[in-house]
Design a protein that fits this description.
about 35% helix, 8 helices, alpha/beta, about 20% strand
Length: about 260
């Protein structure tokens, strides 16, 4: 039995339960649908930011390239040794059929023209290539946190699947995640809205000049519990499609010619 691809903890973001849980889910599904190991593949991280996921994604290819619209985080990514290029996800500076794996991780919800993003990722993917997508779920969970992070929309799983298929992708897997914590997460969002106590832009956790989005910190004991919950959920995601959650994770594949 092949061992799962490990989550490589190298930066502070990896230690936050939300990012750690998302990373484990991404690696588990890439193992299942693209296969573990580098195998001479090329990987593209769309919306790479400061390269915060590239050390994990690099386990799936001998070459990894990042694309980032915002110029601010690119020097940080390059200082870390990553090839991150400035560009627009709706007009990517890459040749047709040039990547085996594409990652679109909490990126497309920031971009007004989502159709162009899905079309462009399809164009640059090789036949037989795989894309992993993560997005926030449910417009009724829209909050000031979405405004702060410049989101354009949140999705439902059927909606995301339909939009990927419209761009030509096959979608063998599309599931909600953050399923176990959903009652707590959704409850906190709705309670804050009702009480008028949503996060605001003066918070030190939301800095316009920061090179990455900061998640609200959790106490160490709570972070450990939620990270354990995330490990349980990854085991569930490997077997089933979950019926609700605060996020969605999907695998899209481009048919071989």
């Amino acid at each position: 039995m092949t061992e799962s691809t490990p989550m490589l903890v190298q930066i502070d973001e990896d230690k936050h339960w939300w990012f750690a849980s998302r990373t484990r889910a991404i690696l588990a599904l890439l193992d299942k649908y693209a296969g573990p190991g580098k195998n001479g593949r090329r990987v593209l991280d769309v919306g790479a930011g400061a390269g915060n996921m590239m050390h994990n994604l690099a386990q799936y290819g001998d070459e990894i390239v990042g694309l980032e619209y915002n110029p601010k985080p690119i020097p940080v990514a390059r200082e870390r040794g990553w090839d991150v290029r400035q560009g627009d996800a709706t007009h990517m500076p890459f040749e047709d059929e040039s990547f085996d794996i594409v990652a679109l991780l909490d990126t497309v919800e920031h971009i007004p023209d989502e159709t162009a993003v899905f079309n462009e990722t399809f164009r640059v993917a090789k036949p037989g290539g795989t894309m992993v997508v993560t997005v926030p779920a449910f417009m009724w969970l829209w909050s000031n946190n979405d405004v702060i992070n410049l989101h354009q929309r949140r999705y439902t799983a059927p909606e995301l699947k339909q939009k990927l298929e419209a761009a030509g992708w096959d979608v063998p897997y599309c599931s909600y995640n953050n399923f176990i914590v959903f009652p707590l997460g959704a409850g906190v969002i709705l309670l804050r809205k009702w009480l008028g106590k949503e996060p605001d832009m003066s918070s030190p956790h939301f800095d316009d000049d920061a090179y990455q989005v900061e998640m609200e910190p959790a106490p160490g004991w709570l972070n450990s519990i939620l990270e354990w919950v995330g490990k349980v959920e990854v085991a569930m995601l490997k077997r089933w499609r979950l019926p609700w959650g605060t996020s969605i994770i999907a695998i899209a594949q481009k048919r071989k010619n």
